[in-house]
Task: structure prediction
Amino acid sequence: MDAMVETAVRELSYAQAIQEAMAIAMERDERVFLMGEDIGVYGGAFQVTGDLVERFGTERVMDTPISELGGAGVAVGAAVTGLRPIFEFQFSDFATLGMEQIVNQAAKMRYMLGGAVSVPVVMRFPAGSGTGAAAQHSQSLEAWLGHVPGLKVIQPATPHDAKGMLLAAVEDPDPVMIFEHKLLYKMKGPVPEGYYTVPIGKAEIRRAGSDLTIVATSIMVHKALEAAQTLAGEGIDAEVIDLRTVRPMDRRTVIESVRKTSRLMCVYEGVKTLGVGAEVSAMIAESEAFDYLDAPIVRLGGAETPIPYNPELEKATVPQVDGIVRAARELATGAR
Amino acid sequence: MAGKAKNGAGEPAGANQPFLYRHYDHKTLRDALRKMYLIRQFEEGAEESYMRGLIHGTMHLSIGQEASAVGICLGLSDDDQITSTHRGHGHSIAKGAEVSRMFAEFFGKTTGYCRGRGGSMHIADVSKGNLGANGIVGGGIPIAVGAALTAKKLKTGRVVVSFFGDGANNEGAFHEALNMAAIWKLPVVFVCENNGYGMSTSVARATAVANIADRAAAYAMPGVIVDGNSVADVAEAAHEAIERARRGDGPTLIECKTYRYRGHSKSDRNRYRTKEEIEEWMSERDPIEHFEEELVAFGIIDAAGIEAIREDVRREIAAGIAFAKESPMPEVANLEKYVYTEQA
Result:
């Protein structure tokens, strides 16, 4: 890396990276504006918008009433008539209140109208457990929205990708749903200054390996990487893929990895049944990689329960590093 | 934009006549009558095509409600926008859609407004400012508010009208959208076409207030009740609301009291209202007959003129159906086209 590039990269938190991306998007394009509950002087429930209202004013950092359905619909209507709204749901759980506009309107409008319009709306969803907020403020609902043709659904796992994928989402002519794990907001990582995009629909190999493939999403990417380090000490070489996009899924990267390693494990926080890992597993079972499998596919997902309040119970609800290590060891050594 | 009556243009504009006849020139008024025939004959043509098995699915006919669609859209320019409902054929035609492309959509053809992907419930003509009918009750209301937000932010001078029925006024989307339009003073007009029934459930059984316009008070905007079967009454209320919106003074809720002659959809067995009730509206309060009588009384048209327009509309409807029949079907290979925007 040359000196010029090095000076252009700083350590930012995931939340700061998103904030910087939104500021750049608003500077580059007058049509871009932010909508959401308490995103103005309050700075957003997770301080993602922070002080942006001071810089861009209340017209472009718009506090909405507590009206998720109406607010999402206003964002859709603004997008279809020429603006580029970024709509923040205060918690991803509140998508349930806005589902009509997301699923029936934003996702389908272009198709229903035979291509006459595009709906360039971005919606952000703070997601996931680990904050002690219990069952209605901790869910991972990306698979719900990933089930809907017309939407694009992404889960950036690093500050670098959070910025680059948000900027790609703003440029995208179609509705993009961004699921941001709340525990990632404070995580720091290298983020280049200025404008850049990270493509939607492209997975990233975070660690190359030869003994098994771990496909992980969002915060589970970091847990999988930690697990891979432990496994390496035992002579097990795990390849860790950060899926990054739920829809449209990067099948090619996963298929090629499984052809190489012959073993697949999926790690995701959403409820295991019918979750993102279910789709990855089925996709591999249908692909040419199936013939290369040396063992049954393993899925580690969220427990079949609402997220509980008690911290020990909450931790037990979603995959943890030691569980990933154990399952990966069994998968790699055949000790099942 | 509809033509305005000009002083000294040789057309009577008596001070005692209603606003509609003072404000618009004769040609505009005759065109408005033509649009009402076009809506009614379009829906009769669609109904007949359905009976003959040429159209599948279902449809929601607005026969009997033509005055609100035409009266409201009289005050809008091509640049102004609307959102519509599952009972939206009238809105679409009133806003300037071609019946040939509407029939083509009903027939599922590539020449239809939605290239055969939408059908009756999703007709849109974005070039004429119709952002689309909607299969979800109340679904278009927040979208209209979003379109009005665009108009305000980009200072386009546009006004957006959101049509919806009495059923939608009990959806959360209605309340959330009206509140946001009011707090942000957006250039939008909410038009409730109260035809007395949400499917089978009467307004009296479903709605706590006597008039839907009463709900405007909760959102600090004017609520106006009009005879939805009178073009003159609707147009006057629309004009005032549209001007208010264009001035930047915010939204209005207009309630058009009207009636649908046909059932809710093709599945309706009509068990919830009497034949007498339907007959009374049809024979005594028909919006087209009412408008014809006024136009004749004010010397704007005569019987021969009426027949000439009707005949012209018949020809347009027949040509539209023929166009739809002859148009090509979509190719199955293109099934997934338009799910996402094609990118270079």
